[in-house]
Design goal:
By secondary structure, the chain is an alpha+beta fold. Helix content is 23%, strand content 36%.
């Protein structure tokens, strides 16, 4: 029987309405870094928004990378556990092996328009079955042993990013 190996992606969007302390810190520090780094691409202060910078300022696509430096420490605090995603027992279990930071929107003069996303990519999982709106998954390293599983609810901003079939 073939094993279906999946990688999940969870997209965490953070904006001015953030209420959790970790999210507030990511919001504040990424906005401060955006304002500072945007000066490189906007020395004459012609543009206010991230969209304007992307459209008119050569090299502004580097802002995603440059601003990500401000949030790396916060991502490290997660200890490679994807936030917000719980199994049916209410426990965080989903580990990520890499992430991607993205500026969705921002404005140099209006902090309330700042919005970022962090895409967390899980470590490979074995996808055993789908039960109603739940995925039954286990750690890929457990193949051939007693397999501890997790039921994971399908939810907004969570997707199967990749699928690979391995023959047993």
């Amino acid at each position: 029987m073939a094993n279906r190996i999946i990688t999940l992606c969870y997209r965490k969007i953070i904006q001015s309405t953030a209420v959790k302390p970790w999210e507030k810190l990511v919001f504040e520090d990424s906005y401060a870094e955006f304002k500072m780094q945007a000066q490189l691409y906007n020395p004459e202060k012609k543009y206010r928004s991230f969209a304007e910078l992307m459209q008119h300022a050569p090299g502004a696509e580097q802002l995603h990378f440059l601003v990500s430096a401000a949030i790396i420490g916060y991502v490290q605090q997660l200890n490679q556990i994807v936030p917000d995603i719980l199994n049916t027992l209410g426990k965080h279990f989903l580990q990520f092996d890499h992430f991607q930071f993205e500026i969705i929107n921002s404005d140099i003069q209006d902090k309330s328009k700042h919005q970022v996303a962090i895409n967390f990519y899980s470590e490979p999982l074995v996808w055993h079955d789908t039960v109603h709106q739940y995925l039954l998954v286990s750690d890929k390293r457990a193949i051939g042993q007693i397999t501890l599983t997790h039921l994971l609810a399908l939810q907004p901003y969570l997707t199967i990013y990749s699928l690979q079939t391995e023959t047993a």
